[in-house]
Amino acid sequence: MAIWLEDETGKYVDTIFVTEKSAKSSWGNVRRPEALPIWSHKRGVRYADGLYMPDRQNPLPDAVTGATEKSSFVKTWTVPSSIKDGNYLLKVEVNNSFDFNQIYRDQLPKNHPNYNSVSGQPSLLWEAMISVGEEFKTNLRIVGHGHPAGQNGTVFFDLNEIDSALTIINSITASSN
Fold first, then answer.
1. CA dist 85 to 17, 42, 77, 114, 158, Å?
2. Is pLDDT above 90 for 145?
């Protein structure tokens, strides 16, 4: 899971939270570009191996990382002074490894358009517009999915081939204090 802000034009602003395995590439000796391709490409940091997911030599700071939550949770975030008041897109990308289905099957050949390593169904992107500096409460909605193999940061809007992945998260609500 990754939570981040973009400005109204879609420019990356800041990472709020990333699960530790993604932030520190702690999947053993395996790189997982398919885990969170939208967030990782949006950040725009390309590592020595050409991938956009953080690597072990360049992990994200502990301040934005944490364990993968298994149930309902609240993430509190103090807005840094570098982020000015205004409208922003709050985005959340989620993925659940090994959630294969009839379209995103296990052990597809690497040249297959639905090849996904061990990811199964691709990551899902949730988003909502928020107003930093004003009180708000909003529900994020699923708007698309990432590339199944993590080859790019494109958001694909067709969710027809996604099934059980749509139930990874029931709802996401964001609010200001």
1. 20, 21, 15, 40, 33
2. yes
CB 134 within 8 A of CB 117: no
Inter-residue contact 17 to 2 (CB < 8 Å): yes
- By the 8 A CB rule, do 60 and 95 touch? no
Q: Rounded to whole angstroms, how far apart are CA atoms 30 and 41?
A: 18
7 to each of 35, 73, 158, 174, how far by Cα in Å?
23, 25, 24, 16
State what percent of residues in the chain have pLDDT above 90: 82
Asked if 123 and 94 touch (Cβ cutoff 8 Å), the reply is yes
Long-range pairs of 106-115 with CB within 8 A, sequence gap ≥ 24: 110/149, 113/148, 114/148, 115/148, 115/149
pLDDT of residue 37: 98
Shortest CA distance to 87 belongs to which of 55, 132, 35, 48? 132
> CB-based burial of residue 132 (10 Å sphere; 0-12 exposed, 13-18 middle, 19+ buried)?
middle
Q: What residues does each domain of the chain span?
A: 2-175
Structure confidence by residue, pLDDT tens digits, 44-88: 999 999 999 999 999 998 889 888 777 788 888 999 999 999 999
